[in-house]
Structures are given as structure tokens and as C-alpha cells.
Amino acid sequence: MTHRDAPALLYEMLRSFASLAQTLNLSRTVKDLGSTRQTVRRHIAQLEEYMGNPLFSFDNRQYKLTETGENALKEAEELLARGEAWLNSESRHVFGLHYLALQDGKIPYFLQQHPLTALWDNSSELLKFGFHCWAQSEGELESPSFAKLRPYLMVFRYNQLNGDWICTEVGEKSSFATWFGWEKYRSAVGRSAVNLPTDKGYSYLLTQSFHDVASTRSIRLDHIHTHMPYGPEATPTPISYHRLVMACRYADGDLALATLIDRTMNVQILELPNEMRLAMPPELAMDIKPPF
Question: How many Cβ atoms sit within 10 Å of the Cβ of residue 140?
């Protein structure tokens, strides 16, 4: 493998590539970036030289992504999102684990990954039970060991065509169902994880937990605080919760991701103000007791 220094303008080159890949129109890309046609073309040419393959074809005055371009786009978008979040002190690692502190308008999104040993220190009986079910089932969704846990889960399948996680199942006792109610939880099936009413914007950063678990075929624990629409008026309401993301398998052998959420005031997130940590209405905490 040949090692070469990255060009100093790599970030701008990635912006040009990602924008042109989205618009497939050079004039629109130039306008969106406040750049010039020559600059965008030069950025694309430099990326293609480094990567050793064309990123776009240009036929009949129309840009089209090549296979190399399609395969490179998602990671380019991820690098841009991570770079912007890092620059704004919104994304970093705490004790080697993932940390986010995002603000989309008036909606905060704080996330801190915790080691799995925290399950035994300060997590609920529901999450401990979920971990045991996952281990006993060896990740098989249809295993009898998972049967008692299924009503509390949301399950997702990866869509290779667009890189989204698609909801395939919502348990009637899950946090999603008990927060949003019957109509929302039933209509969530078939929708992308980033288009559910739980998470808006920051699409890559908000599903990074999913991608991490999928790539390692493992399990992770996150503490999260944000706002979500609640009640008939869909009023933005503070919500805090612990979340297990578990790599599983469907009956056909395909990868599944199962999420188990327990709403609780007991979130431990660095730099989360105490008034925000305790802002969720106490009656919305789940407080589920065994037997499940």
C-alpha cells in the first residue's frame, strides 16, 4: 500500500465532491459552495488522481456518479459531518468512547457512550435483562430467549441501496410506542431511522451508534438527552434515556439491529447541565420492573 500525504485542501475537495454528487449539476454546486466552476473541477480531478479512478462520468452534458463515486460518497459525507461537528466541539471521544453535544435550532442532542460494565453499575433491570437475552439468544431474533424482550424492542434492517436503517418492527411496550402512541408506532415500520420523529438532522452522527455496532457485530450502551414531540399537540418535550443497540440476525441470516430504550432521569452525560438532565417530566420515565 502506497502512503501519500493528504492534500491540504482535502476538506474543500470533499465538499466539492459531496455537493456535485448530490446535485449532479455543476452550476448548482458552484452556487451552493460559493465557488467557481474551475475550482470544483480541479477538486474533483485531484480526488480522482489520488483515488486512481474517476468519480463521475460526463455524458450528454450530464454528470453521473461512477461505481467508485457511489462507493466513496457515504464516507465523504461522514468525514464532512464529523469534521464540522469536531470543529464546533460537538463531537469527540470521552475516555475513548463516543460523545456528541449537538444543537439543531432549539433542539439539543447529547449522547455519551458508556462501557458495558455500566450496565451493572447504574442501568435498569430492563437493560440488564436485555443484555442477558442477547447473549443467551446468540443474537438470533427468533430465539425463545428473545421472546420476552421483543415487546420492548425496535428492530432495524440495513438498506444497501441508500445506506439507511429501516425500521421493521416496533414493540408495543417499547419506549417509542409508549411515547408516541399507537398511530405513530405502527406507522414507523418501513421508515428510515433518521426520518422517524425521534431524530432530525445530523443523520450520520445520529446513526453512528448503529454503524459502529453493525461493523463490529457487537453491542453498545448510550445515554442520551434530547427533545421529542409529545402528546396531541406534538409539543417538543425533554426526554432522557439509556439505549442498548444490539447486533442480531433475522431468520434469513441478514443483519438486524435491535434497540432497547429505557427512559430515565439517571443519565450520565459530560457537560449536560443538571437542569436539562432532570427536565423530562417524571411521569414519563418508564420505571419498568421485573418480571418482564
Answer: 17
Q: Is 182 helix (H, G, I), strand (E, B) or coil?
A: helix
Q: List the grid coordinates of 28.
A: 448548482
Query: Got the DSSP string for 1-54?
Result: ----PPPTTHHHHHHHHHHHHHH--HHHHHHHHT--HHHHHHHHHHHHHHHTS-
Return the ∠ at Cα 228 (arms to 102 and 118), rounded to 5°.
65
Which one, of 248, 220, 241, lies nearest residue 155 by Cα? 248
Full DSSP string of 61-111: TEEEE-HHHHHHHHHHHHHHHHHHHHHTT-EEEETTEEEEEEEETTEEEEE
Q: What is the pTM of this model?
A: 0.76
Contact 231, 73 (CB under 8 A): no
Closest CA to 174 of 261, 257, 258, 240: 261
The pLDDT-based confidence of 198 (bands split at 50, 70, 90) is very low
The residue with cell 449536560 is 272
